[in-house]
Amino acid sequence: MKVFVLTNLFPREGNLANGVFITRRIEQCVKLGIDYTAVPVWFKDGWLDSLARRLLRKEQINPVKEFNGVQYSRVDCKRKATWLVWRLIRKINLITEEHIIAKQAESFARCVESRFDLSSFDLIHAHGMYTPPAGLIAQILSEKYSKPYVLTVHGSDVNILMEKRKKVYLDVFESAQAVIFVSNALLEKARSFGYSGKNAVVIPNGYDPQIFRSLDKDQVRRQLGIYTEGYKYVGFVGNLIEIKRADKLVEIFDMIRKGYPKVKFIVVGVGHLRDKMEQEAEDKGLEVLFTGRLDQSEVAKYMNAMDVMVLPSRNEGWGCVVLEAQVCGTCVVGSSNGGIPEAIGFQEYVVEEGPDFEERFAKKVVEVLRSGYDRQKIVQRAQKYTWEYIVKMEKQVYEAVLQEKKEECITID
In terms of Cα–Cα distance, which of 320, 301, 302, 299 is closest to 311? Predict the structure, then answer.
């Protein structure tokens, strides 16, 4: 089986962990005998784009060609207009956003055609409906080469972007042979915008058991140089951005400390809110360890060091970090938004969105710190969601799609 993978999510120079759940999938595809070609969906910056990004302090997006043995076939495709021009056009509403992404997708599809023989592949698997949408590019190529396509959506592409790009997204969703959602909540969100769900499949993200596993917490804390006898540890792992509610994280930490004084805080991740968060913590006299960006093996150590990991996100497709923390023997307390409750799996650790959310969230964490939790129960619940298990389910989707395609051909003949 030959699969052509188009992905909006991929490892980048300076951020190899970006889209790591795509890399992990492909690793398992190889083990299952699936021949893949993975193409990052991006546009190469010209000199004006590079200058604009530097001035606006925006991250340069340059895919790597290889990460953990997984090959990414970079297509150096240039925009017809610069990144900055597209931003300005969107800002002043000269043309619709749907028109812009359609033009960008058509341009990228042509670049792909010039580089690869699409007729040699059995199917196309697109990850993401971001900018330009990998799923839209897959649809264009599918129609031209009569190849079935599968789409996986991961969270904010549906939760944030779909509403203003509804017409294009619905057409891509309904035309796909299968649309994989990482949670039931994400599927229901797509349905709220008019998606029929006739070709929907729910398959969550997984975790790597070679990296994430339960260790002795005190021993890990000593290795990291953060051990203090008698203290509990509360942490956060993720991007320091508003949708993760990182803007309220220090406030939540402060309320936790007031309810449980012998506690230390850890924040693993990067984002534009970091400086503001550090200043806020200093103003409150709150000791918070900001680790910055770490590779996954280091993330696993800090997850093991935590008694509770918090995920107060305003929206979330699934949340890989939930399973990763749970198999490390760490209790996760999360919001009721998106796929978080499904990922956590224990209603008692879910805090409903609503008035006084931060106060109620902090209260729940304090309750867990005081009462403790069944560590083994949490570990056992998460253990089945390995990447091997997840990708075997995705392979079943591939096989069903190809069988359906074969039966269509037989009927036509």
Answer: 320
What Rg, from alpha-carbon coordinates, does the chain have? 22
pLDDT of residue 410: 46
What residues contact 104, with CB distance under 8 A and at least 6 apart? 43, 79, 86, 131, 132
All structural domains of the chain, each given as residue ranges with its CATH number in brackets, are 2-206+387-412 (3.40.50.2000), 217-382 (3.40.50.2000)
Contacts of 285 (CB under 8 A, 6+ apart): none
Predicted local confidence at residue 11, as pLDDT: 94
Sign, CA torsion 174/407/181/119: negative
The pLDDT, as a whole number, for residue 118 is 96
Segment 207-257, tens digit of pLDDT: 999 999 999 999 999 999 999 999 999 999 999 999 999 999 999 999 999
Q: Which residues of the chain have pLDDT under 70?
A: 46-58, 60, 80-94, 406-413
Neighbours of 73 (CB within 10 A): 16
Distance CA 220, CA 352 (A): 32
pTM for this model (two decimals): 0.87
Q: Could you give the CA distance from residue 23 to residue 259 in angstroms, rounded to a whole number?
A: 41
Six-digit token pair at 241? Answer: 């951005």
